[in-house]
Amino acid sequence: MSVNAGLAHVSTDFMIAALLIYSLALLAFAGDYAFGRPRRKAAAAAAPVAERAAQLAAVGAASAGTVSAGTVSGGAAGAGSANPAGPVARPERPAGAFRAIKDAGPWVVAAASLSWLGILAHVVAVTTRGFAVHRAPWGDMYEFITALTCVAALFFGYILIKYRAWALGVFVMGAIVIALGLAETLIYTPAGPLVPALQSYWLSIHVTAMTLSSGIFFVAAVLGIMYLVTERYRKRVAAGKAEANPLLDRIPSASQLDKLTYRAVVFGFPIWTFGVMAGAIWADQAWGRYWGWDPVETWAFITWVIYAAYLHARATGGWRGVRAHYIQLLGFASLLTNIFVIQIFVTGLHSYAGVQ
């Protein structure tokens, strides 16, 4: 089928709009860092430990929940009560996600709203690109990067709501803006038909899995870098080698970043595994063998081994913390090497996946 030029232009317009909106969201996240209300430490300290571990509500903004003062009928609180097992102070239920965002202040409201508006424009751009070319919209390098950043933005939008993680926005959204900006300027590829080797329904299976997992690993890599920076900064402050920085103090704790990074990799790793297996099946149909040590195949397997090593290291007490995060970042570096070096500069059966 011929390319629908009108939809292709619509896709490009929406992609540029998404990039601009993400940039505004990045400024709003930065504004929250600079001018947003500080965290209410007393309320956070009174919240149950399990709730604090499950949320990042208080990071960089007001706490999502407050603790009620408790009422005791008949006399002074806790003293001379006729009922020794009477009412006791209980924490209120945490506010809903949207209420928590509203309570966090106008900067967070603007940042979250712009983020989701940008995600909507991004999804429309990727979808219309698919309709324009009558196939899954990740058949070349440009389409893969734009789809990858779309998945990363969606995943960040999820943790923004679930974990109240707006303190991460300036870092994750900044990385998405850079990646999407490079895609729109340096590797932009006009909409066009696929080369014969990619004209298979396995494109929608194999490449979709690799795109989803890569987007999740993208977010995990940003969180891993934040973990290393935060851990080093707080160790230097504790040792008296550096002064406290109010902005860096608003970054989530190292333990919170560690847990969130681990959960992201745990979520993305099975998808990557499925993508590698689907690629092997596709290779058997296309080239008559499941595995041929093609450069892209080999690097995909190397990336799988590194992430598997990270999960093993993270599950082993002696390899938690900084060393485990170095392994995770090495895995993402391997993934980037496969995308930007192997597929573009190394000749192989996957050479068609490079910049066209």
Biggest pleated sheet: none
Q: What is the residue-mean pLDDT, rounded to a whole number?
A: 82
- The helicity comes to 55-70%
N- to C-terminal distance: 19 Å
Radius of gyration: 24 Å
Task: Characterize the quaternary organization of these chains.
Answer: single chain
Number of helices: 11
**Broad structural category:** mainly alpha
- What is the β-strand count? 0
Strand content: under 5%
Globally, the shape reads globular
Q: From N to C, what is the helix and strand string?
A: HHHHHHHHHHH
Low-confidence runs: 39-47, 56-92
Describe the structure.
With 356 residues, this protein is an all-alpha fold. The chain has 11 helices and no strands. It has helices at residues 5-35, 41-46, 49-54, 97-103, 106-133, 141-162, 169-185, 202-238, 254-287, 295-315, 322-345. The two termini are 19 Å apart.
Quickly list its features.
mainly alpha, 0% strand, globular
Topology diagram in text:
Blueprint: H1 5-35, H2 41-46, H3 49-54, H4 97-103, H5 106-133, H6 141-162, H7 169-185, H8 202-238, H9 254-287, H10 295-315, H11 322-345
Helix pairs in contact: 1-5, 1-7, 5-6, 6-7, 6-8, 8-9, 8-11, 9-10, 10-11
